[in-house]
From TrEMBL:
<protein>
    <submittedName>
        <fullName>Dipeptide/oligopeptide/nickel ABC transporter permease/ATP-binding protein</fullName>
    </submittedName>
</protein>
<dbReference type="GO" id="GO:0015833">
    <property type="term" value="P:peptide transport"/>
</dbReference>
<dbReference type="InterPro" id="IPR000515">
    <property type="entry name" value="MetI-like"/>
</dbReference>
<comment type="similarity">
    <text>Belongs to the ABC transporter superfamily.</text>
</comment>
<dbReference type="Pfam" id="PF00005">
    <property type="entry name" value="ABC_tran"/>
</dbReference>
<dbReference type="GO" id="GO:0005524">
    <property type="term" value="F:ATP binding"/>
</dbReference>
<keyword id="KW-0067">ATP-binding</keyword>
<keyword id="KW-0547">Nucleotide-binding</keyword>
<dbReference type="InterPro" id="IPR027417">
    <property type="entry name" value="P-loop_NTPase"/>
</dbReference>
<feature type="domain" description="ABC transmembrane type-1">
    <location>
        <begin position="69"/>
        <end position="258"/>
    </location>
</feature>
<feature type="region of interest" description="Disordered">
    <location>
        <begin position="615"/>
        <end position="670"/>
    </location>
</feature>
<dbReference type="GO" id="GO:0016887">
    <property type="term" value="F:ATP hydrolysis activity"/>
</dbReference>
<dbReference type="Pfam" id="PF08352">
    <property type="entry name" value="oligo_HPY"/>
</dbReference>
<feature type="transmembrane region" description="Helical">
    <location>
        <begin position="186"/>
        <end position="215"/>
    </location>
</feature>
<keyword id="KW-1003">Cell membrane</keyword>
<dbReference type="GO" id="GO:0055085">
    <property type="term" value="P:transmembrane transport"/>
</dbReference>
<dbReference type="InterPro" id="IPR003439">
    <property type="entry name" value="ABC_transporter-like_ATP-bd"/>
</dbReference>
Amino acid sequence: MRRRLGLGFWTATCWIGLVLLAALLADVLPFARYDETLAGPPQSGPSLAHPFGTDGLGRDVLSRVVYGARVSLGVGVGAVLLGLGIGAPLGILAGYRRKAADAVIMAVNDVAQAFPALVFALAVVAFAGANLRNVLIVLGVLGIPSWVRLIRGATLTYAEREFVLAARVLGTRDGRILWREIVPNVAVPAASYAFIGMAVVVVAEGSLAFLGLSVQAPTPTWGGLINEGRTLMETAPHVVLAPSVVMFLTVLSFNLVGDRLRSLADVRESGLEPARQAAAFSLPTTTHPVRDCLLQVEDLRTHFVTPRGVVKAVDGVSFTLERGKTLAIVGESGSGKSMLIRSILGLLPGASVRGGNVYLSGDDLTTYSSVEMRSVLGPKLGTVFQDPMTALNPVRTIGTQVTEPLRVHLGMGRRQARAEAVRLLASVGIPDPARMLRRYPHQLSGGMRQRVTIAMALSCGPDVLFADEPTTALDVTIQDQVLRLLHRLREERDMAVVLVSHDLSVVARWADEVIVMYAGKVVERGPAAEVFARARMPYTEALLQAAPRLTDPVHHRLRVIPGRPPDLVDLPQGCAFRARCAYAEERCAIEAPPLFEDGHQYACWYPRDRSAPGTGAPSPIPLPVTREPAAEPAPAADEPATAPTPAPATGFDDEPATPVTTPRRSRKRS
Ligand SMILES: Nc1ncnc2c1ncn2[C@@H]1O[C@H](COP(=O)(O)OP(=O)(O)OP(=O)(O)O)[C@@H](O)[C@H]1O
């Protein structure tokens, strides 16, 4: 956390602490009082005795600035506490209770916010008297509407979160939920806004003082000092510069501290955000012989420099992929599957570092600029993401989203793009596609939305389609339809598919090749049937054994892989799987195994020997269940968004909903 707040935060905090301390200890500090006229000449410049010089009446400017801080910071702290004290309870009440309380509080709040703040402050102070108490009350009251709005927004966010619902389900009282669940979460944005609010109040007080409507002379305030020094700008600029610079630095510091505190509450910046030195960190890249294939990945590495150390999310992955083939990537959660895909596509978070090469039809994509990559993403590389709801923009129609890549990449006109979009939606099995173009994502069921994202990914005719767990967010009945669809489209378009999946039965059924990943590395790789029939690496064996089968006896214990995946920041020496491996020997702890070749590749010093069934060696592990799926039915045009069950089948199987020229394929399974 200390590193995430950064040097700026700590410098700003020290400055605020220094100013605050000086203001508190002003009476005991070794300088003259703010109103004491000194013996020396007035308007004298900075000296050792008077670091900020003296003003027009020969008074010590440093002393006046320090005493002025008492008023400025006092008003700042007081006004913020007043605003928070009244605004926070109202905001929490409005955000948590909603309904009538929310409507009344927000209506009054909106009216209050409509008042021009400075004019209101001027009028009240001029009428009630310019003194510390009145200025503090006016600025505090003016801050209340902003506090209400901020706290209400934060409360609304947390009131709908699962942990609050869970507390409600457990019968926890509202007061306790507010105090235990909501207030601690709202506290961080509130603390952040308190500092920013302090900066606003210090400036507002300075403005009032400048106009002579704050604490009256001889008590100094920063705004008043700037006003006094104004006339001496040419003869003694230090008189106006000293309070101005101190005020500027203090306001800047409040803003900086507030901003950094806000980032603590920001999920995007929490956890493992890359450290700054990532830019200076680079991975060596060597050149490789380019093979005659569609996609060639060589020694691909993706590392993140984090405050905890370097996370090796992808570490030296190589493979090739031919047209018309499906490559599956499997492995436990966190093994680097998604990062591998994002690394190939060049879609990595800002400060990550990539090494190695990605050749697409012989061209090295790692040498492409971001502009060049834009011309590849879409036309040559398509992607289908896990959750179709988040992959589609909820406020744009399906039509706008499907036609966009056609217009951007293929330069089609509006009408042509719409006609093509209709054809695309029809080809992925969406009934009444012309009407579908006018709908929004939330009006479609999960399966239909995934069909739309597949249509978008295919719109520019990519050579390789990356599907990152495309069925995880879908109902099990829809999963199979989507996989069948991908398979059919692959055959029709002669493209390659890279499929990430947790489901080994899916992989066993649809993939030609499989890569097993563990701790960012490939630990087994080869033809899917061969790898599943003769898994050599104990990790692959454990994955296969952990997959449930329909032949399992009822109520049997689920098999799990013991232990946990290693920490990618601190990988153990030798084989990364050794701590969880039942067959590990001494050598596994010393030396990391390379990829051995024996029919397929595996990284293990003591591989499982499945080459000789019936000779005492362990028998092949049965493949995970490959359900014989029902035919892929065409979803009805009016399929409700919340009902994933498809409409009665209309004879649609793995064939497109509208006739295309592709001949019907055999349904025989390998
Ligand atoms: N921005 C990041 N900064 C640091 N580490 C990251 C970042 N993003 C991912 N990682 C790490 O990279 C590793 C691989 O992540 P990845 O998302 O590829 O896993 P995965 O195998 O796809 O998992 P899942 O199946 O759960 O999606 C994880 O251990 C993760 O902690």
